[in-house]
Please model this.
Amino acid sequence: MTEELKLLLGQCLSVGFDGPVIPEEYEQLIREYKIGNVLLFKRNVKSYEQLKKLCDSLNALILRETGHPPFIMTDEECGSVSRIAHIAAPTPCAMACGQTGDPHNAFILGQIAGQELRAAGINMGMGPVLDCYSNPNNAVIGNRSFGRDPAQVTQYGLEFMRGLQSAGVFPCAKHFPGHGDTAVDSHLALPIVDKTEEEFRRTELVSFTAAINAGIEAIMTAHVVVPAIDPCRVPSTVSKKVMTDLLRKELGFKGLLLSDGMEMNAVMNLYGIEDATRRALAAGCDIALICHSAAQARSTMEFLAKSIENGALSEDTVRDRHDRVLQWKKKLQPPKGTQADFGSDAQRAAARKIMDASIRLLSAPEGKPLPALGKHTLFLGLPARAASQASDEVAVDAAARFAQHFGGAQDGAQPSKSKVDAAQNIVAFFSAHADLPALTETVNRLAQAGKPIIAVCLTTPRCLDFIPDTVWKVAAWQYDSLALDALQAFLEK
Model:
């Protein structure tokens, strides 16, 4: 592979790695193959000082080896998908923000995220999520969406975009052409969106079209099949009809097009990472994301070079992608800010105020006030878990925390009879988890027996649809300490 070809192809990949420092294998990958961009996850983030040093080192290494600064990117949607929340200001998820009734809150969240990212040396925040939560069984998007209404998603999503931009960070809207009407997680398998083209244009495309018209810098693809747009039924990431004909030509998108992770089963099981990347570049993607492995990045670079040699991938196509990447790199702003701009008291207070405003009493039996909680309350919960395949934040134990605070008892999804008999009232915490049916059955049985119950949803409120209206229903939107703090204050009113 020639040096020129390495420089061309290297700008078309963004590669992640493990750990808080640059591994020798990764550094060698950059030196040998001229990879031009990097993707960071929580596994790379230990402290502000460490993260800033890491970003400075990555910038210097890639600038030296390629002649251009890298896009240093990370998923920063706020809420359950945030790679820095454990060391920065914890923030509400998009759905919580959407429940506040004030779109300016989305701008504030985007601005907080942008200030923190730029202060650390990260120049692209992969958000906002512009997917409409149009399928209530959608586990992968869920509370990452601002809501079900395309107009609401558009309004809040664009405000979040502007918040990032105001801080000098590139936003990257996702997941085009829309991942909101799926019941399958593309990390695990290939989702199919069986809507008519007219239905698709009325929902999924509304927010993306508005973001394009507003000048968004980058968009991420979705590994979903949309037969109404591409009858060949291939994942949108590798579909020229979706990525070029629809996004580029019809909608007029001029910015950077990033693939979702190429290790995700939705594409890897069909093509393997190497050929999936070739297909994505040919379809219209500018940068393909390889999230975990330097070895996979090496094999992908070699595969792409051979594909150019045998005519399976046009060098002109690669040159077009390379040139667009460099065109947008000219617009990058240098890092700005210090640790004072990273998880400051003001940022934390602003985020907490938004979270407080989002907590909702969805229904109350006969309009009665919430029962008072105390030592005779039994708190039911589920084991700690990550919110979704896209989240790497493990939840706190809500039942244990609230039992300790209010002085009550705690149990799991199927509580002991002695604890139930001793309880005057019950609080049950629902989330997206395998034990959800057991907890639902328990709450329904206890409700029929006349026990006063508060059902609290720590994700989308879909799970509360299966609980009778004789139960108080509360939505707290996400399973983390920020939401539990707000919920605790709400229950104490």
